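Reviewer has doubts. Consider these tokens.
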Amino acid sequence: MEELLIQLEHLREKMIRSGLEHGLQSKKTIQLSKQLDKIIDQYVQQTLVAISKE
């Protein structure tokens, strides 16, 4: 789960940089945002599974 957090932070930083350099509506920024959404979803799912096992 820690690996997902590292990926999440890396993608978040990359998306912010892209937004500043290319604009929030650029294809690159939107693509990074979608990738970030998928990782957030994975993290939430793993967290829910971990909580349900407690």
Remarks:
- The chain has a mean pLDDT of 95.
- DSSP finds two helices and no strands in the chain.
- The radius of gyration is 13 Å.
- Helices lie at 2-22, 27-52.
